[in-house]
Amino acid sequence: MEITLLKEEDVWGDSALEVIQAYGTRTGISDAAIVLGTFVGYGSRNSAGVTSGCVWTASFLEGGSLCVVGAFGKEFNFFPRTREAAVRPALSASATSKISPSNVREMRFGNGKTVQICEYGAYPQTVAPESISQELEVQYQKNALKPTGKNYTFDSAELEAFDTGFTPRNHKEYMFNGKKYVRIEGKPCSSGTVLSDDRQIQEGVAYWFEVQPIEWLMDPQGTWVTRQALFAGVQFDVKEEYDGNFANTTMYNYLQQYFAKEMEAQKEFTETLSRLAIRNRYFSNYVSGFENNKDFYPAGKDGQPFTPEKARAIVDITNAPPFMRDLLKLIAAFPKEKQGQFKDAVLTVFDKERDERDQPSEIVLLGKKLAVSGGYEKELNQVLQGKRNETNYSDTAQNSFTAQRSFDVRMINFSRKSERR
Q: Using CB atoms within 10 A of its CB, is residue 180 exposed (0-12), middle (13-18) or buried (19+)?
């Protein structure tokens, strides 16, 4: 299923979608999209009373910039390497003809106009009430929350990192009191940005968002567009200018590779990635026994040896201490001269970018022993301190220059935004 964006002509003018003409051009922004860095208009709201902000379209303007729907529903221009515009996914008529939506209903406005709304898929959207957020954070820090096995992928790069391409970071979905939540750290576009409950967003502070059904506005001609923008923080493209070829952009690739898959409400996630399934699929051929009485078989019970690729597959789907303990003990069962091939998997077990929580001391000790035998003890210590990507002094100096240059470019780009409608 191909995900796309609206074009300029879908939003304004005589050929605008009928549903947009009725609903209005101002686009509501989800709490999750605001936390991820959307440029919102102070005091601006859409027809449903939701805070509105800047949203990408797939159309290009003169000078290689993109057409953006501004916070007040007017046309702006942003350059493709910025990250402050939110994303409002759309589906073509050919795609929606194959979908059976749920909860289809009609919304009527005071001016007598109506739009049809349906639900399809799910995504992190509304910030959880503060009391629930606090309890979620407490349970998260205790490693006591139950992951569903599903992840949502966002860009971990800073908003002003123009020279940095898409850098994916997974955010696990957790089940808590019958609802699903995702934890995202604040990356506000500007100071003073607030959520729907009037909480002011703080840089680097964790916020919890409920995973909710995605509401789509249904145009009579078959096109669907989400009722509000769902995420932000992703560059439209790494190139400095946009030529109008949407299929050849970072945003298009992200929508197909990540969003299209992650917005689907798939029951298989919980079943496929349950602890029993992980044990049976990834460990049964290499580990036997229970608790502390286990035997490890690097060569495999069936003659298929354990490999770095299999180790990587494990750390990509779980960081649960019982599995990490067995993984490291299995690697330790190899002859010392062969343990080094698992270096990447071992470092990933403790990577703070992957999960901020520390592994138990027993697992840290196992990792340190492997690092010593493999000759990467210094690298592991950096990872344990959250410095896996630490650069040397000259790199840091260059990065400072790049950051200043990026800031200057951003200010120039901002000054070039202009209302045309």
A: middle
